[in-house]
Design a protein that fits this description.
Elements: H1 8-16, H2 21-41, H3 47-59, H4 68-76, H5 80-93, H6 105-112, H7 117-130, H8 133-146, H9 152-168, H10 173-183, H11 189-205, H12 207-213, H13 217-229, E1 237-238, E2 241-242, H14 244-258, H15 262-278, H16 284-299, H17 304-317, H18 323-336, H19 341-345, H20 348-353, H21 360-373, H22 379-392, H23 395-412, H24 416-430, H25 438-448, H26 453-466, H27 471-490, H28 503-515, H29 521-534, H30 543-551, H31 558-572, H32 575-581, H33 599-608, H34 616-623, H35 649-653, E3 669-674, E4 677-684, E5 692-701, E6 707-715, E7 721-724, E8 740-747, E9 756-764, E10 767-775
Antiparallel strand pairs: 1-2, 3-4, 4-5, 5-8, 6-9, 7-8, 9-10
Length: about 775
C-alpha cells in the first residue's frame, strides 16, 4: 500500500514533533521521495503544493536543488497560485551561479507586460532579488516603463527593482534618469523613499547623474521642509517624528549633492538649521534624523555657525543615556576634530568624563578623542586627566593611553622638567606598556637638559628604590645613575626634597636589579654598565664593583657574559684608560628633518629607528615579488645594523646612548596619491655608513573613509640589499588621522642609481585595492 503524501501543515507538525535529529531526517527523506515521484509523474494540479513543501525543507537546511526546474514550470503556468509559489521558489533556489536562472528571463518579461498588478509585483520582486547582470540588461526597458504606471503598488516595486539594476549594472543609469525627476512629485511615501534611494545610487556611481540631480536640490529641500513642518500622522509618524526613514534618506542624498558644491550647499543651509533646531531628540527616531543632519552639515560647504551648531548637537549626544548614541557622538567628533578643533574643544570636559565609562568601546573612543584634543594650551590639564585614567584603565587600553601621553608630551611640553616628570609618571604607572623607543627618548631628553641632571637622577633613584618591576623605568634609572651618579651623592639639588644617599646604597640597589628575576637581559646590561660607570664617579674603592662584574663573566646569557668579560678586561689591562672611556656622555640634541613640512614625522622616525624590531621572515617574503625590477631580491642579506653611536666599538659595547650629527637633508618625495590616500618617502643617510640609506614610508589618509588592512611591500634590484622593518599599523583613520609609517633599510655598496618598486594592498570604501608602481625619480643624494 502506497503511503499518501503529506500536506504542508501536516509535514510541519510531523517535523516539529520529531524528538531526535534522526527522526527528523527520516520524515524529510520520506517526504522528499514523494515529492520527487510527484515531479516525475508531472501532476500539474498539485505541483505548487509539492514545491511549497520542498521550500520548507530547504529553509530547514536540507538539499532542495531538484526543485529548480519545477520553479520554471510554475512560473510559466497561467495560474496565479502556481506563479506565486514558482517565483518564491526561484528567489530561494536560484541565483547567479546557476545558469538555470537565465531561463526565467522570458517569463518575467511576459509577466511584466501582462498588466496584472499582482503578477507584475511577483516578477519585479524576483528580479530585484536574484536578477543577474544579463537579466538586468535584458529587462531594463520593461522596468523603466513600469516606473510611470498608474498603480502605486507597481511603481514602488519597479523603483526598488531599478535600484537593484543600477547596483548590478551602473551603465544603465541613463535609462532611469528621466523618470526619477517625475517620481519626485509623488505623494506616496513608499515610492518617494524608493526614488530617493535610486537617485542616491545613481549619484554615487555616475558623475553625470550627480551633475544632473544637483538641479533638483530645491525640490528635495521643499520635500524635507514639508516633512519637518507636518504635524502628527498615524500613517508615517514614528515616536512623534514624521517619517524618519524618508528624512534620513533625503539628508544622505543632500550630503552627496552638496559635497564640494557651493551653490547646492547654500540652498540647503537654512533647511539644515531648521531640522537641527526643531527635531525632538527624546526618542531614537529623532536622534537618527539629527545625526544624519550633523553628518550632512559637516560634509557640505556649510556656514561656520552651522558647523558649530552640529558640534553642539554631538555634545548633547554625549550626555544621552543611550550608549550607542554616545559612541556615535564620540566617533563623529573624532572625525571633526581636525577641521573644527576649537568647536570640539568646548566639549572637552564631557569627553573626559566618558573615559570613566565601563563600556570598553566607549572608553577607547573617548581616549582617542581626548588625545586628539590635546594642544599647547591645555596639555597640562589633559595630561593630568589622562594619567589619572591610565592608573585605572583596563589593560587592553594601557598601551594606547601610555603611548598617546608620551607623544602629546613630546609635541606640546611647556618645559623640559614637566616633560621629564610626565614620562617618569607614565613609566612608573604603566612602564611595561610603553613603546620600545620610550627609553631612548627619555635618555636623550635628560642628556640634553644639563640643568636637570641632578633633578632627574634623584627622581629616578627614588622611583627605582620603590619599584624595580617596570623594566623601561629601571633601564632609564640605571642609565641615569651611571651617567650622573656623582650628582646623586652630592645632594645639592634645590628642586627636590633633601635626599642623602650613600655609595653602598646605590651599589646595593643596582645589584638588586641584577639579581632580580623580573629583570630582562637588556635591563641587566643597563645595570652592569651603570656599575662600570660608577667605578669612575664614586670616591670609594671599586673592588665591590669589580667583584660583581667578574661574577657575570660566567653568566648564561651570552651578551651579558661578553659585556662582563670586556669590563673585566678594562679593569685588568686598560685601567689607565677606564676613566676616559667611561666619562659622561656629551649633550645630545634630537635629530630634526627640515624638509617639506614633515619635521615631526621625520624626527620620530630617526629617534625610534634603533628601537624598531627587525622582521626578517616578513622581509624575505616581501622581497620575492614576482620577479620585480631586474631580478628577485629574495637572496639578499639584510644590511648591517646601524651603530647608534659614532664613538667606536667600546661605546657600542657599553650600550651608551649617543646620536649621530644631523645628516644632510634630502628632499622628500610623494610617490602615490589616490582617493585621499597619499604615500611620502623621506630619506636619511647615516654619516657613519655612507652605503646605507634609510627610507621612511609615511602613508596618510584625508578621505572620508578609513583605509584598513594596509600593507606596503617593496623590492629593489639584485645588486642592492633591502630590509623592511615592521610598520606602525595597518589602519589609516579617515579625515587625516594618525599616519602609518614603515622603515626601509637599503644597502647600496656599489653606489648604483636606485630604483624602487612598491606594491600597496588595502581596503578602501568597501573595496579591496592593489597598486604596483615603480619609483624612478629618487633624488640623486640617495645613492651618490
Amino acid at each position: 500500500m502506497v503511503v499518501p503524501s503529506l500536506k504542508l501543515q501536516d509535514l510541519i507538525e510531523e517535523i516539529r514533533g520529531a524528538k531526535t535529529q534522526a527522526q527528523e531526517r527520516e520524515v524529510i527523506q520520506k517526504e522528499c521521495a514523494h515529492i520527487r515521484a510527484s515531479f516525475r509523474d508531472g501532476d500539474p494540479l498539485h505541483r505548487h503544493r509539492q514545491l511549497a513543501k520542498l521550500l520548507y525543507v530547504h529553509m530547514l537546511g536540507y538539499p532542495a536543488h531538484f526543485g529548480q526546474m519545477e520553479c520554471l514550470k510554475l512560473i510559466a503556468s497561467p495560474r496565479f497560485t502556481d506563479k506565486r509559489v514558482g517565483y518564491l521558489g526561484a528567489m530561494l533556489l536560484l541565483d547567479e551561479r546557476q545558469d538555470a536562472h537565465l531561463l526565467i528571463t522570458n517569463s518575467i518579461k511576459n509577466d511584466l507586460s501582462q498588466g496584472i498588478q499582482a503578477v507584475q509585483g511577483l516578477a519585479l520582486c524576483t528580479l530585484s532579488t536574484m536578477g543577474s547582470a544579463e537579466m538586468c540588461r535584458d529587462l531594463a526597458t520593461e522596468v523603466e516603463k513600469l516606473l510611470l504606471q498608474p498603480s502605486s503598488y507597481v511603481r514602488k516595486k519597479a523603483v526598488l527593482t531599478a535600484v537593484h539594476m543600477i547596483r548590478k549594472v551602473p551603465e544603465l543609469s541613463n535609462i532611469f534618469l528621466p523618470p526619477c525627476a517625475q517620481l519626485l512629485h509623488e505623494r506616496h511615501h513608499g515610492i518617494l523613499l524608493g526614488t530617493i534611494t535610486l537617485i542616491t545610487e545613481l549619484c554615487e556611481r555616475s558623475p553625470a547623474a550627480l551633475k544632473h540631480f544637483r538641479k533638483v536640490v530645491p525640490q528635495l529641500v521643499k520635500i524635507l521642509r514639508t516633512l519637518v513642518t507636518t504635524g502628527y500622522s498615524t500613517e508615517h509618524s514614528i515616536s512623534g517624528v514624521s517619517d524618519p526613514f524618508l528624512q534620513v534618506r533625503i539628508l544622505r542624498l543632500l550630503r552627496i549633492l552638496g559635497r564640494n558644491h557651493e551653490e547646492s550647499s547654500e540652498t540647503m543651509n537654512d533647511l539644515l538649521a531648521q531640522v537641527a533646531t526643531n527635531t525632538d531628540t527624546s526618542r531614537n527616531a529623532g536622534s537618527a534624523v539629527l545625526f544624519e543632519t550633523v553628518l550632512t552639515i559637516m560634509d557640505i560647504r556649510s556656514a561656520p555657525g552651522l558647523r558649530v551648531l552640529a558640534v553642539n548637537i554631538l555634545g548633547r549626544f554625549l550626555l544621552n543615556n543611550d550608549k550607542n548614541i554616545r559612541y556615535v557622538a564620540l566617533t563623529s567628533l573624532l572625525r571633526m576634530v581636525q577641521s573644527d578643533h576649537s568647536a570640539v574643544q568646548r566639549h572637552r570636559p564631557t569627553v573626559v568624563e566618558c573615559l570613566r565609562e565601563p563600556d570598553a568601546s566607549l572608553s577607547r573612543r573617548a581616549l582617542e578623542l581626548s588625545l586628539a584634543l590635546v594642544n599647547s594650551s591645555n596639555v597640562r590639564a589633559m595630561t593630568q586627566e589622562l594619567q589619572s585614567f591610565l592608573e585605572s584603565c583596563p589593560p587592553d587600553l594601557r598601551a594606547d593611553c601610555a603611548s598617546g601621553i608620551l607623544l602629546a608630551a613630546e609635541r606640546f611640553a611647556p618645559t623640559k622638567r614637566w616633560h621629564i616628570d610626565t614620562i617618569l609618571r607614565v613609566l612608573t604607572t604603566a612602564g611595561i606598556y610603553v613603546r620600545d623607543d620610550a627609553v631612548a627618548n627619555l635618555t636623550q631628553l635628560i642628556g640634553g637638559a644639563q640643568e636637570l641632571h641632578a633633578y632627574s637622577v634623584r627622581r629616578l633613584y627614588s622611583a627605582l628604590a620603590e619599584d624595580i618591576s617596570q623594566q623601561p623605568l629601571v633601564q632609564v634609572a640605571a642609565w641615569c645613575i651611571g651617567e650622573y651618579g656623582d650628582l646623586l651623592l652630592e645632594g645639592s639639588c634645590e628642586e627636590t626634597e633633601p635626599l642623602q644617599v650613600e655609595e653602598e646604597e646605590v651599589l646595593a640597589l643596582l645589584e638588586k636589579v641584577l639579581q632580580s628575576h623580573m629583570s630582562q637581559p637588556a635591563t641587566r646590561g643597563y645595570a652592569l654598565t651603570a656599575l662600570m660607570k660608577l667605578s669612575t664617579r664614586l670616591r670609594g674603592d671599586s673592588n665591590r664593583i669589580r667583584q660583581v662584574v667578574s661574577i657575570y663573566g660566567s653568566c648564561l646569557d651570552v651578551e651579558l657574559q661578553q659585556r662582563a668579560v670586556e669590563d673585566n678586561t678594562l679593569f685588568q689591562k686598560y685601567d689607565h684608560m677606564r676613566a676616559a672611556i667611561l666619562e659622561k656622555m656629551p649633550l645630545v640634541e634630537r635629530g630634526r628633518s627640515q624638509v617639506d613640512g614633515e619635521a615631526k614625522e621625520s624626527k620620530e622616525a630617526q629617534l625610534s629607528e634603533t628601537a624598531l624590531v627587525s622582521t626578517e621572515p616578513q622581509a624575505s617574503k616581501l622581497l620575492d615579488l614576482l620577479d620585480l625590477l631586474d631580478g628577485t631580491s629574495g637572496d639578499a642579506q639584510p644590511p648591517p645594523p646601524l651603530d647608534p653611536s659614532p664613538g667606536g666599538a667600546l661605546v657600542h659595547l657599553l650600550n651608551l646612548p649617543g646620536a649621530p650629527p644631523p645628516p644632510p637633508s634630502i628632499p622628500n618625495l610623494r610617490v602615490f596619491e589616490r582617493e585621499g590616500l597619499q604615500l611620502h618617502l623621506s630619506f636619511v643617510r647615516p654619516p657613519g655608513t655612507p652605503a646605507l640609506l634609510l627610507i621612511m614610508v609615511t602613508a596618510t589618509n584625508t578621505s572620508g573613509a578609513d583605509v584598513t588592512h594596509f600593507i606596503c611591500q617593496a623590492a629593489v634590484p639584485k645588486s642592492f640589499q633591502l630590509q623592511l622593518q615592521a610598520p606602525s599599523g595597518d589602519t589609516l583613520p579617515a579625515q587625516g588621522g594618525l599616519p602609518v609609517t614603515q622603515l626601509l633599510r637599503i644597502l647600496n655598496p656599489n653606489k648604483a642609481p636606485l630604483r624602487l618598486k612598491l606594491r600597496l594592498t588595502y581596503n578602501h570604501f568597501g573595496q579591496s585595492v592593489q597598486e604596483i608602481f615603480e619609483v624612478n625619480n629618487l633624488p640623486v643624494e640617495t645613492w651618490q
